[in-house]
Specification:
alpha/beta, three-stranded antiparallel beta sheet
């Protein structure tokens, strides 16, 4: 055997040994409950990158952080945390330093939204107290996997074939006012005869219009349940279009149509999308998760109106069956963990007065109770919280009225009041008029966070307690 071949072989053997050691170490950590994998996602505009950055910063710098609701920090047992690459995930690292620099810049700015998968490990060092003898330390490995909320909206499609999906989309589009946003497009999709010969050029043009329709639904109406979700993030020609009028066509008749028909042509595009985009993501990402955190912009949705709130509840309902629920046994911890805790957090609560935070949490809870009524009975533990990953406002008083003060996105100092938040879903009519005024303004991150003051927040410690309280 030549020297070069022998060197390559020895290198391979060293690599296999290293990987085996890492795998055995990973397995031991899972079996001993020293590793927990949390998926983090958020509906549009929820501030996912900002929350991950703030959460990591709080745990890395416990001496600066204010975390009285997180027991290890309160008791002085949180010693700090180190960022490590998530080697087992095969995903690019979350750009923590880049996001942190944006928050600490002068003037400060919000981190860029993540549009792809990312992951990291956070090794949290904790002091362990003993009744006898000296205290020791231990490490909890927190694996964070971040993915766009738009991808989450695609997962319910895995349970539907093309016929089911078309009829579902027809019902959704016809049940609310979104059809009025693009009447010509909706008419064209409804007018596509399933049995007619497909014209790829025409269908591609319809796809471009349909993608713009989805983007408008999100930006103008703040709707959440939009499919295919990847159309909102990139310009790829997925070509996944629903036929909106299948009345009078039985499934067996549709399945018997020739391959060049509109129905079979679009059904093949639908299957390709699920096989190439959605299924690989579900298999590679979700089978590792122990817990899931979903962030929602509850305030923005509430002020967008009744349709936006209804659509958020619809989205919750369809993703309710997405996760594998229940507790993991010793072996399933290694091969197919189950999501044993699902946490929803309403973000940006610094846009409303502190007196409204609890009402906002109750409102989110009502949305979840309605959407997850079936899943709850199968043992899925649900939790909800209201947080601000970075607190951008403070309360003040003017002429005896409480108000919020902060800086708008251009850096101008401003004060504002918000409409009182009801602790229940508004009833039709007058209660929705209550929110008819302007939504609270978007605020800029506070200046001065780079001067060693830490990142101010609201109830991130309570969120940490929900996610990790039983592990520390």
């Amino acid at each position: 055997m030549s020297d070069s071949r022998s060197a390559r072989l020895k290198g391979k053997v060293r690599q296999w040994r290293r990987e085996a050691r890492e795998k055995s170490h990973w397995a031991a950590e899972r079996l001993l409950d020293r590793r927990v994998c949390i998926g983090i996602t958020g509906l549009s505009g929820a501030g996912k990158s900002t929350l991950i950055t703030s959460l990591i910063h709080q745990l890395k710098h416990p001496h600066k952080a204010q975390l009285p609701g997180f027991a290890p920090a309160l008791n002085g047992d949180l010693l700090g945390a180190e960022i490590k690459p998530a080697l087992d995930s095969g995903q690019p690292p979350f750009e923590y330093e880049q996001c942190l620099q944006a928050l600490l810049a002068q003037p400060p700015r919000w981190p860029e939204s993540t549009r792809e998968l990312s992951a990291l490990e956070l090794h949290i060092h904790l002091r362990r107290r003993h009744r006898l003898g000296r205290p020791s330390t231990r490490t909890l490995v927190l694996e964070l996997r971040d993915y766009p909320g738009e991808w989450l909206m695609d997962l319910p499609m895995l349970r539907l074939d093309y016929d089911d999906w078309c009829r579902q989309q027809s019902h959704i589009i016809g049940a609310d006012s979104r059809a009025g946003m693009a009447p010509q497009l909706v008419s064209q999709l409804a007018g596509l005869a399933p049995e007619a010969t497909a014209e790829p050029g025409r269908l591609d043009a319809l796809w471009r219009d349909y993608r713009q329709f989805l983007l408008d639904c999100r930006s103008q109406r703040k709707l959440s349940y939009l499919q295919p979700g990847r159309a909102l993030l990139d310009g790829e020609n997925y070509g996944v279009l629903p036929l909106l009028d299948l009345r009078g066509h039985r499934r067996d008749q549709l399945e018997a149509l020739p391959a060049e028909s509109n129905y079979q042509y679009l059904a093949q595009r639908y299957r390709d999308y699920l096989r190439e985009q959605v299924a690989p993501f579900a298999e590679s990402h979700f089978r590792h998760l122990d817990r899931q955190l979903v962030l929602v912009d509850m305030i923005g949705t509430l002020y967008a109106g009744e349709q936006a709130l209804d659509d958020m509840r619809l989205a919750f309902g369809h993703i309710a069956d997405t996760f594998r629920y229940g507790r993991s046994g010793p072996l399933s911890k290694l091969w197919r963990p189950r999501v044993d805790r699902l946490v929803f957090a309403a973000t940006k609560v610094d846009q409303v007065l502190a007196a409204d935070h609890d009402a906002l949490r109750q409102l989110l809870g009502q949305q979840l109770q309605q959407a997850f009524a079936g899943a709850h009975h199968r043992g899925l533990p649900l939790f909800c919280e209201a947080i601000a990953a970075v607190r951008c406002s403070n309360e003040s008083q003017r002429e005896g009225r409480r108000m919020l003060v902060g800086h708008d996105m251009e850096g101008h100092y401003l004060g504002f009041e918000n409409a009182e938040i009801f602790a229940h879903v508004p009833r039709a009519g007058e209660e929705w008029q209550h929110y008819a005024g302007a939504a609270p303004p978007q605020l800029r991150p506070p200046a001065g966070m780079g001067a060693g003051q830490g990142i101010p927040h609201i109830r991130v410690d309570a969120l940490l307690n929900l996610l990790l309280g039983d592990k520390v």
